[in-house]
Amino acid sequence: MITNKKYAIGSLLFSVSFNALATSDVYRFVGHGPISAGMGGAATAFDVGVAGIMTNPATLSLAKSGSQVHVGMDAVFVDISVKNTATGESLDSQDHSNNRGPYVAPQLAYMYRGERFAFGAGAFARGGVGTEYGKNSFLSRATGGLNTGLEVSSRLMTLNIPVAASYDVNERLTIGAAVDAVWQGLNLDLLLGADQVGSLLGSGRARGGLVPVLGGLPDMRGAHLSFTKNQPIASGADAWGMGGRIGLIYKFSKDTIFGAAYSLESSLNDMEGDATLTAIDGVAGQIPLNGKIHVKDFQSPAQFNIGFSHKFDDHWMVAADISRIFWGKAVKDIKVGFVADNGANIDIDLPQDYKDQTALSLGVAYTRGDWTIRGGARFATQALRSETLLAVIPSIPNTFGTLGFSYKLSPASNIDFAWTHSFEEKMRTSSLPTTSAPFEVKHAQDSASIAYVYQF
Length: 456
Description:
Mean pLDDT is 91; it is low at 1-23. This protein has 456 residues and is mostly beta strands. It has 5 helices and 24 strands. The two termini are 39 Å apart. The chain has a single domain, classed as Outer membrane protein transport protein (OMPP1/FadL/TodX) (Porin), CATH 2.40.160. The radius of gyration is 23 Å and the shape is elongated.
């Protein structure tokens, strides 16, 4: 649990308040900071400012000498719809609650570049996902068409607070490293039908003292799990942990740079919080149980990047990154443990079995006078499997187009901006235990990233 002191620290770092995050590439933003975002997410082998601490800390040494302050935000506008393919009913994820959408996340950082060393620290949203389906749709109906009037929604947020340094080994080689404090918070309102619960029991994915209690109900129709806080920062369950990355850049020439970086899988404690498990019965009605929730071993994956950049002249520059994101090890199951106030418990393992993902980021920049114009694209393989798709976590877009610019307000300051469009992706599922009714998800979105940078 987050202590009052940690809340105070978090409130200070979140100088730009925000409601929630939404996913861009699974649970991660395409790029961190407007420069990377405008270049299709490429960031491993060129100067993206202090936001480089989130991808390759060695790129800090590409900055100009002196100090740099970065203050900005990301805003994400999500278009998610779900269709029951058996009945034809459809619904959109909308703003049914005050803690979801439009999604806004902070950027706040400082760096100093010396003769051979550079240092940086900041707070950046790593990513997340958010959905809000209300309480009157087919997703809120239990087995047998029983309307429950219970919410179905989600909100996952991950915030990284890195401290980074880089060192010029020689004129060509620079190395860098970062250590992150990581905070993760989750809100979840999820309804499982009786057939889903039965499937989990039959496969050994549901166990504990509450299992025979649920099984003993006269007309068991489902179970609803809820742990949600309608607050800008606090979540129903949360945890702190650690992360980090190492990186290098090698200058083949002043115009051609190679970069490589490896981000470690996070080491987060189990997310914990207060929760309500509601048993739904056709005869006895709804039977709520209050207790504590534990979301176990939910980690951000490791990632390996290699990248190149090349300046053709004073105007044109191109960059490319290839990334391998190791989702397969990080997200096998969503493991949820609930302990009622009376001591009875149930453990549920929702299968996910994500696939490792490969992504290609491409970007081009053109500079003329006080303006730099950027464009890019990102193409990624699909990490989610249709048979384990959850309507509350439809993180399926994997093709993106980006545009951006920088404008010098003065010799010491500039405004950076980027717009990212996530092209619509569709996925269908009809598999137990992830769903009772067959459905199709459509997910597209747009996001804007803006930052003010001051150098001194």
